[in-house]
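User: Could you go from structure to sequence for me? I need the amino acid at each position, not a summary. Structure tokens:
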């Protein structure tokens, strides 16, 4: 049981177990993500520049296909294996943005700041979710609508290629991902989510989008080109 106070929510044994397993699996999932990132940063992604729309659609098909497979097998050990495979693929897909960041004079610092900012947001949102008594059901509708709007905007900007819209989307993803972390942890705490594989998948996607969005904003506003 978590320590309780006038504003905390006491967890049952099952809720505590789901929360603990989710945090553990999320931490483990960062290992293949980092391995994939180290592999991806050395790959040549020039094909994505030559056919950005086709490559993006293919990438989304792979991502959502793996997410569907994880959810389909969330009650078995296969689901855990598929989740770790998914996080490795997502790590590889960090290659282009990491290459771009590392090409800047302060690229390493920007990556570190983005990672630190992601961790800070995660811990703050998780702390709020575990101490607020009220279940945050109202966020469910907001996130559902927000996900659709963001996806439509992302697809639209594939054709429009408007830099200002891209930065606006990055800022929107920071807010959306933060709220998703808050909602998902709250669902676990209040018994709305009982499967730690599904919970980990949601939190990983939120953390991933939060990191990449913060990094892109940092590169846009504080990135320094090499002389």
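Assistant: Here is the amino acid at each position, in order:
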């Amino acid at each position: 049981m978590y320590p309780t106070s006038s504003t905390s929510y006491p967890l049952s044994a099952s809720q505590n177990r789901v929360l603990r397993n989710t945090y553990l699996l999320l931490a483990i999932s960062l290992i293949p993500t980092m391995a994939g990132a180290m592999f991806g940063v050395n790959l040549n992604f020039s094909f994505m520049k030559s056919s950005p729309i086709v490559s993006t659609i293919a990438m989304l098909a792979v991502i959502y296909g793996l997410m569907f497979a994880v959810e389909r097998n969330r009650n078995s050990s296969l689901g855990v294996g598929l989740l770790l495979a998914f996080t490795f693929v997502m790590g590889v897909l960090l290659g282009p943005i990491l290459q771009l960041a590392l090409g800047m004079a302060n690229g390493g610092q920007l990556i570190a700041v983005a990672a630190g900012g992601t961790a800070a947001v995660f811990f703050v949102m998780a702390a709020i979710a575990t101490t607020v008594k009220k279940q945050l059901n109202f966020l469910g509708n907001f996130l559902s609508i927000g996900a659709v709007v963001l996806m439509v905007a992302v697809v639209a900007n594939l054709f429009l290629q408007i830099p200002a819209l891209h930065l606006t989307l990055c800022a929107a993803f920071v807010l959306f991902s933060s709220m998703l972390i808050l909602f998902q942890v709250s669902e676990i705490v209040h018994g709305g989510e009982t499967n730690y594989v599904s919970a980990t998948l949601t939190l990983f996607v939120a953390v991933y989008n939060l990191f990449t969005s913060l990094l892109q904003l940092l590169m846009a506003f504080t990135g320094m080109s090499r002389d």
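One structural detail worth keeping in mind: Residues 1-8 have pLDDT under 50 and may be disordered.
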